[in-house]
Amino acid sequence: MEGAGPVIITRSKVVVALSGLALAAVVLPGAIAAGTNGPPPVPITGGGVLRLHMAKDADFFRFHPPTGSGQPTLTQRIRSTKCAASLNPATSLVTLSSTPSPPATVVGFQDHSLGVKTATESTSSGSSCNRVDANEALTLALSGTLAGKQIDFAELDIEAYNGVTVRADSYLGSKPVDTSLLPTSEPAGKEWSDDDNVRWILNPSQPFDRLVLSVDGSTPNGAFSLDGGGDGAAVGPLGTALQTKDTLFQLTEITGIIDCGETAPPVGGGNTPEATFSRGENPNCAPLPYLLRTDPDNSVLLQKDASSQPGANFLLDITWEPEDAVLPVPATTIDYDGDGPNPPQTVQWCRGTTANPTLPDGQKWCLAKQSTELVSDGQMQVSERYYGAGDPRWAR
What we know:
Elements: E1 7-9, H1 21-24, E2 48-54, E3 59-64, E4 74-81, E5 84-88, E6 94-99, E7 105-110, E8 113-118, E9 137-142, E10 151-161, E11 165-172, E12 175-183, E13 197-202, E14 210-215, E15 223-227, H2 237-242, E16 247-251, E17 256-258, E18 267-268, E19 274-279, E20 288-295, E21 299-304, E22 314-319, E23 323-324, E24 333-335, E25 345-346, E26 351-352, E27 357-358, E28 365-376, E29 379-388, E30 393-395
């Protein structure tokens, strides 16, 4: 999915139109509520949703797993001692950190807002110990149960001060993914109030697992806090679907990360096909997250985003479930757009050779090798190797 630019939703109007496939997929009608208990009002998709809720009733991070996954809903409480934030359990879902590093600063938490507290800042109500000021940064990173997962997009509830432009740097591990800016229009000198929150939708071109929020150098007198729905701005599409004003992080469903020259562990087998994914070499190689899934309906799904990696190429080896032994061997179908308007099509043989395949015109994947063996009386098993670059679903 190509990433959309920053999207700002204030209390009064939508400043930039929403875009992006992942966002459109979750737009559902529903009244907005700030409730903290009970199951989500709609099915949770992808890799689940991480929710930051901060209001008078409670302050916590909560992970809602994908519906039907069997995973538990997990909660990580946020507490404050003299404006210094702590998480309980400490690393179960996320970690929070501040820049400059301790003891110069700690993560600040007061009045249901997160920021950065310096050693000299007051801890009295109304102080700036829960704000991020110039030359400071607040970092959120997935950890514990969520370690190894990635964020597809986020809906942030930001409390803005003094015309601040907020900077968001997203990372996947140590690799920078994206930098986005949120200009705000709060009049200079205006104090915090219930109408200075904005909703910021971050939708980078690639998933991320760490987010660093800071004041952009263009507005050194500005500041901001990260909020969680207490007096938040109008919600985005995910918040609309989940009926909450909380800060939200939509997690991706991924199997792993593959680098050039690597072969990933096989998935499936048993009552589903077994599939093994491998990657060739390309210039300026960078690791890519991917999803590889095999299903009981004798299908295989592969998803990734190699748009930033010109020349990326892959092999997919599939051992299908046993089927009726017939001649000729039935063809496998390939579906390039899932539920889109284009129907599945019969796979085509590659050009070239099995050792050096090339794609036929108009194809993103092709069949490089096929073998069949009898596995029982009247039953055969088909094994195939595919070469290509797209994200299709194969089926027999």
